[in-house]
Amino acid sequence: xxxxxxxxxxxxxxxxxxxVLRKPNPDLMIVRARPDFPVPMHKxxxxxxxxxxxxxxxxxxxxxxxPKPADxxxxxxxxxxxxxxxxxxxxxxxxxxxxxxxxxxxxxxxQSEQGPPALTPRLFTLSEGDRLFVGEKIAGHxxxxxxxxxDTVLFLSTGTGEAPxxxxxxxxxxxxxxxxxxxxxxxxxxxxxxxLPVHEELMHRHPNYTYLSLTTREALNLQQKVYIxxxxxxxxxxxxxxxxxDPAATHVYLCGNPKMIGVPNTDKATGAKIYxxxxxxxxxxxxxxxxxxxxxxxxxxxxxxxxxx
Length: 309
Fold this sequence. Notes:
This protein is 21% helix and 26% strand. By secondary structure, it is α/β, with parallel strands linked by helices.
């Protein structure tokens, strides 16, 4: 394709501009995209769509791609939870409705067993001022709707799964939430904690907020390798929270690796729950009288889930 053909395709498909782009490390990106249209009304925790053309170049060092000639002009789209940096450049709480942009927290997927990753290698070629696609619809049931002002709120995530939690944290602070809030994010290395300085500042400002950064390949947190499940089973989470977990006044939000979350299946014959072989957070909490949301029955529990793959 010629540069003129690329320009025509971008003009046809792209409807947003990358206005701020920051890479905490080469494989991690925080990008703010300003759509050409007014940002739709939405709730923290929901998701939108990002897209780039199949014709765009890809970041080096990624799994080889063998596109079909007919795919050259296609737009690749994927859903991403909306994130939030909580504070602006001057340290004040962001005025999100007035910004006109949406923030996304993205990890570069270099290879996949399901085939060469199509979108993130292209997103990682973006620079500030470049154009991309942003979906006009924002949706999702992963929100703060059931949370009351004095409730304890736990945000438990892996990697970029903390994106919706950051936005929900902004909303709780904006509301003046009086209950305790704890965020825990599990990553491989400290450099993978893209929002760590923000969380450290928020802990300094808000006595009811605690952030736990967990690394699995560095013994920096609690002097040992710690997973989200370990926090719960060892009692460390309640110790850091400063109170026991009370199902009557606690909401737990889980986002990221399905193995951490551990969504159960249902035995069709008996209706009994079948938990994954590797124990996840849901099994741990349900044995402590917490209840998982049941969207099919329109029943809200106090464990809320957003799986990332």
